[in-house]
């Protein structure tokens, strides 16, 4: 009963600068952050990729940052991605890792042209290194613009991945548009606080929308990337891929760093492709708050750890 108000409260705190400062300077902050974030540096991110690769898991790396306020900041983020890709290549890890990019991190005030140019630089570098890029999806006010940029990027780099969020009422029809053969689409439930006009409020409706959209992607021949930790959904998706006669390797499961690692290993040991979303960087606050909002038990863990040394 208390879950929804708590979730809204935590998501509201994600936008608060004073709460961010309070959390960042709390004694136990590092321990909590370390559960969900691989570290602050590229080296730490690469170490996490190596650890995952050791038991057959792949990674998609996210350099944390969103809603940048000036071009200098976006330039710093783009350059970090370029360096990350170089270092992945030099370490022989590009077969195991790709990158995920938030457009709000590589543009200013929603400038689509700048987003396209900067995301394009990252896509070009990824292609040179032999890997791919997935463009994360943010709140519903950005969905159209994000899909426009992805469509444009795909003209040059057809492997660019799109993300759909099953909590949005529009997602099944977006899935139809993106379900062509080889189209890489990550399907997740969605992590932002959205109004009822655009999003399903009940968990059951979000799950049904997820399965309907998964069916559309599987039927259309897309390379579906099932991003969920939900045990019930993972089971249903296993049934759906078999029903559509999909071979292993023509779809994948994705989960977040630090969430259900045993399940990640179990799926990988069964021969499934499993990709772990590995965030790193100093700007971990917004990301951490969204992870806490997903699960009240994480919030209790977080508050206990913050209070301890
Ligand atoms: P749900 O939240 O219903 O959780 C099901 C079960 O999974 C829980 O009961 C619990 O056991 C476990 N679980 C889930 N979250 C947990 C957590 N934080 N800690 C511990 N256990 C947890 N969203 C978005 O809006 N845009 C995006 O681009 C992406 N990208 C993305 C990539 C990848 C690889 C993943 C896995 C997820 C995203 N997301 C995302 C986040 C996604 O939308 C969603 O918020 C989370 O995955 C949680 O939803 P679940 O499907 O796991 O189900």
From TrEMBL:
Cofactor note (record): Binds 1 FAD per subunit.
Reactions catalysed according to its record: L-proline + a quinone = (S)-1-pyrroline-5-carboxylate + a quinol + H(+)
Proline dehydrogenase domain sequence ranges: 46-301
Record: residues binding substrate: 102, 290-291
GO molecular-function terms, A-Z: nucleotide binding; proline dehydrogenase activity
Keywords, sorted A to Z: FAD, Flavoprotein, Nucleotide-binding, Oxidoreductase, Proline metabolism
Entry's EC annotation: 1.5.5.2
Binding of FAD, residues: 137, 165, 189-191, 228-229
Protein's GO biological process: L-proline catabolic process to L-glutamate
Pathway: Amino-acid degradation; L-proline degradation into L-glutamate; L-glutamate from L-proline: step 1/2
Needed co-factor(s): FAD
Top EC class of this enzyme: oxidoreductase
InterPro entries for the chain: FAD-linked_oxidoreductase-like, PRODH_bac_arc, Proline_DH_dom, Proline_oxidase
PANTHER family named in the record: PROLINE DEHYDROGENASE 1, MITOCHONDRIAL, PROLINE OXIDASE
Protein name per UniProt: proline dehydrogenase
